[in-house]
Amino acid sequence: MAIFIIYRLLRNVNDWIYLSWWPEDHGNHRNRLPPGDLGWPLIGNMISLFTAFKFGRPNSLISSTFTTRFGKAPMYRAFLFGKPCIIVTTAEACRKVLTDERFGGSWPKSLTILLGKRGFHGVSNQERKRLRRQIAAPILASPESLSLFIDYIDGIAKNAFSTWEQMEKPIELLTEMRKTVFKVMINVILGDEINEDQELMDCLANDNASLSHGLKSMTINLPGFAFHRALKARKRLVETFAGFVAQRTASMAKEGNDDESKKKKNLLSLMIEIQDDEGNKLSDEDIIDLMIIFLMAGHETSAHAITWAIIFLQENPQILEKAKGEQEKIVQNRSSSSKDLSYNEVKQMKYLQKVIIETLRLVNLSITLFREATTDINMDGYRIPKGWRVLPWIRSVHLDPENHKNPMEFNPSRMDEEKNKLGTLIPFGAGSRLCPGADLAKLQISVFLHHFLLNYRMERINPGGKVQYLPAPRPADKCLARIMRLSTGSSETAKKLV
């Protein structure tokens, strides 16, 4: 009996702390909270989340912890990532949250500290909108900028596949892909001159890895903890990037706008010269924090997505042949004077874009996004309290059979079959907080898949092996495989690939 009483007391602590002030319903449904519970003191429902993802049952967090106990609902109350929150599980509710400006950003403390107060995650809503106007459309999503970046991506992708095919032993494709896409992002941000300093490249890679580990850790700033190592890594990255900003600013002022300097432009150069409508430029602090964010986000997601796309394509020969046929047609239509991939050609890869989006839908590299109610909000018959974190649960939306027929099936053609289902495909988010680097990420993935489809095949050592879901979905063996070159024969397409 004593154990039962203690158990009930502990299970109600969070409710007493966070809900004791909440007004009684008294028949007024406008005050009704979503169903659910706030779990244990301090840790809330984190044990359930960790257990579900650690043991390969990521969907069970919603199905077992909430739906089975409280019935099916568009949202549930919980306690995750150190705060009371509302988990939003339906496409319509997620769309409302992502497009309603009353829901501001609310990222975990470790992320906001390590990525910097001047990046998209750390600034006010007004400042974020300014950064998006100044960065996203004119740089990260403009054809002119993406056309500049494709040369860096294309060269590194070709060299990487050529190196992998010559390896005598199987490689961990995910590990190699992360290293390679990291190099891509360094080149996109700083230019290919940095490739000449391998020691600096290694230091940046190590610091970036430490920072990445710290993003997913508890904010314990003591020696031996991941967050402490990440803070030190961030400090070194800030110092290194500050040097690049000063050096590049000085060289750009000296070179002016001559044709040769335009050819060598990269993300850093574009951020230094960009101005808003009032003629204001980004501060050095803005640029440095943005460089860290782009480096972190730009290679992790892309490397995982490329690896999974190759796996799915290799497992589905008919889809692979269709995607390959599209790439062959693009090369066949290329002029004899050009052998390099162009941005205009990437825009012609309509089916490949469906492959990419379908990969992201099925894998769900981001299980949730982080928002916060800036005021009490009524939605779908429930009241969301001001200050509570709101989590659009992307996995639930993407894998719901009501949204997607046979959701566990890899089917890029579903983009056409389900094109009128608003809000059911949100791998990059939605609304004004749509991922600013989405176009750059899709460009990277497209270039790597272009070369794989035309020239290579993969032979996995452990096909159908286990999948780990923490910190992101990935093959347990990191996709141990051999990359082998295809027999090109003597076709006109093959000759153009040489």
From TrEMBL:
Its cofactor is heme. It is found in: Membrane. Gene3D superfamilies: Cytochrome P450. It is a single-pass membrane protein. Pfam families: p450. Heme binds at residue 435. PROSITE patterns: CYTOCHROME_P450 (PS00086). Keywords: Heme, Iron, Membrane, Metal-binding, Monooxygenase, Oxidoreductase, Transmembrane, Transmembrane helix. GO terms for biological process: brassinosteroid biosynthetic process; brassinosteroid homeostasis; sterol metabolic process. GO terms for molecular function: ent-kaurenoic acid monooxygenase activity; heme binding; iron ion binding. GO terms for cellular component: endoplasmic reticulum; membrane. Belongs to the cytochrome P450 family. This is OLC1v1031384C1. It comes from Oldenlandia corymbosa var. corymbosa. The lineage of its organism: Eukaryota, Viridiplantae, Streptophyta, Embryophyta, Tracheophyta.
